[in-house]
Amino acid sequence: MSESHAHDVSKHVKSYVLVFVGLAVLTAVTVWIAGLQHTVMAGVVLALIIATIKGSMVASFFMHLISERKGIYWVLALTAIFFLALIFLPLGAFMDQQGTPLHSTGAVETSSHHVP
Amino acid sequence: MQIPYTVDVRPDTGLYNAKLGIWLFLASEVMLFGALFSTYILLRVAAPVWPHGSDILNVPLATVNTMVLITSSVTMVMTWVALKLKQFGRARMWLTLTFLCGVGFMVIKSIEYSAKFSHHLYPSTNTFMAIYFTLTGLHGLHVLGGMLVMAYFLGPGARMWNTEPERYTNRIEVLGLYWHFVDLVWIFLFPVLYLL
Q: Is the pLDDT of residue B27 over 70?
């Protein structure tokens, strides 16, 4: 093994240790923030932002996505699109029903009796 | 006939085959867990009331488990580094530590599950417990699957190092990608179930 290769690998090790420390600190921050008084929405947003940062650190450094081939990025981009559709399509469909009175079909049928 | 591109890079993809394969598998895993996360969101926004995770679940134990999985990700990547440096003995030590972290995670998880059962909290108790057991159960199965593969590479699979060290290194890299993904899923499960 060449000296430059060994040097590259040891540089990797330093970044892994730093990422580990970062992940540990962010885990503590997540728990600390959850204990604070705030609205549910603020709690959800904060927790998901921190989780996304942690997830990005794992993916970028431990999974080497920071220096991966283009083909992998394409696979992941496509996955991300479908993932977002999976999350937001059902949610959007549900939200679309909000405010619609229960048994609305029945109500229309009842009222139609009064229409000459 | 030898299987092609187990070590050499395939010219059209720029990757060895197993690496492209594991990323495609992980893409399907994103969709699997994505469907369950979507279910969680839908159940939660549709529920008139939703319990605060920390009122029912054990946050300190889950925090320890988060640290155990993060540590296992570091030991996993150190296994790969050691193999790249041709230090097989050291790699075995790191992989054994990763395996032990997996054992630790499962032991803590079983303590958590036992406590829930002793309080008569089952998947059938309510929607929250149902989605909690489904998500953590599926994740736990993934941890067990990873540990099985680790046991193979520590045992009979380790012989490959003597004949095809580069192929063995690539296999460990692929295992590592899977293991980091399992860690990544937990990073999202932890706040979603325990803290929100």
A: yes
